[in-house]
Amino acid sequence: MIRAMRRVNLPTADLNRDDEPAGYEHAYLKLAPLIGGATMNGGYYELPPGQANCPYHYESDEEWLLVLEGRLTVRHPGGEDELEAGDLVCFPGGPDGAHKLTNSGHGTVRMLIVSTNNLPAVAVSRTATRSVSGPRVAGTTSWCAASRASTTTTARSNPAGRRGAARGRRRGGGSAASSAGGAPRRHDRAATQTASRRAAHRTRRS
Fold first, then answer.
1. Mean pLDDT estimate for the chain
2. Which tens digit of pLDDT belongs to each residue from 63-119?
3. Which of 170, 172, 175 is nearest to 186 (CA)?
4. Strand partners, 95
5. Based on the number of CB atoms within 10 Å of its own CB, is 78 exposed (0-12), middle (13-18) or buried (19 or more)?
6. Per DSSP, what are the bridge partners of residue 123?
7. First vs last Cα of the chain: how many Å apart?
8. How far apart are CA 44 and CA 26, in angstroms?
9. Strand 63-69 and strand 109-116: pairing?
10. Which residue in 23, 17, 87, 18 sits closest to 54, CA to CA?
């Protein structure tokens, strides 16, 4: 018996919405579980005018962004660019791939982001602290809804990955947060441990 191909129709799919802070309201869909993806992550997003999907950040994974509809403002280490439907860009892993995606237009932006799926995976931002267990959505993590006042590292990993992230913090003395032209800063290790413990009880749904 031939197994049916797994597929999802993006324009008609039911999207997820989380309780995000002002300025970061968006709808999204995790794609890998729906189509049987195992080695890559993918996310489909709809951004209303004036909204972004995440704070300015970079990740350890490489990400590709394809704008499907609307005009999207991309902040990156070199400044800002405006993308339109059909534009495809790549954000490399690490500080050179730092970005923030904002709908500065009047209509809804629809976009697709795919990424590598390395473990442990780390996202670094000035605006949130949260450790996330299990699969993430390419282009966003639940730390968008976390505290917006500290320099942070967000890791998604299995237990071994979390131990690896902890070893990395001990070697490096903290996380590197990036803003355009900004230098890495240290953050309070105890605060990070506290945030990680809290996050363990608030792991976002798969």
1. 74
2. 999 999 999 999 999 999 999 999 999 999 999 999 999 999 999 999 999 999 888
3. 175
4. none
5. exposed
6. 59, 154
7. 30
8. 10
9. antiparallel
10. 23
Spell out the residues 6+ positions from residue 147 whose beta carbon is closer than 8 angstroms to its own.
Answer: 128, 129, 195
Single-letter amino acid, residue 24: Y
The number of beta carbons lying within 10 Å of the beta carbon of residue 158 is 12
- Partners of 113 in the β-ladder: 43, 65
Query: Tokens in use for 15?
Result: 């999207």
Domains of the chain in start order, with CATH, are 18-200 (2.60.120.10)
At 36, the amino acid letter reads: G
Torsion, Cα 131 132 136 137, to 10 degrees, reads -70
Task: Judge contact between 154 and 123, C-beta under 8 A.
Answer: yes
Q: Which of 134, 151, 132 is nearest to 196 (CA)?
A: 132
| pLDDT above 80: residue 37 | yes
Residue type (1 letter), 179: S
Q: Which of 72, 76, 74, 75 is nearest to 84 (CA)?
A: 72
- Put residue 185 in one of left, alpha, beta given phi > 0 → left and psi -120 to 50 → alpha: beta
The position carrying tokens 């932006």 is 109
In whole angstroms, give the CA distance from residue 37 to residue 90: 20
> Longest C-alpha distance within the chain, in Å?
57
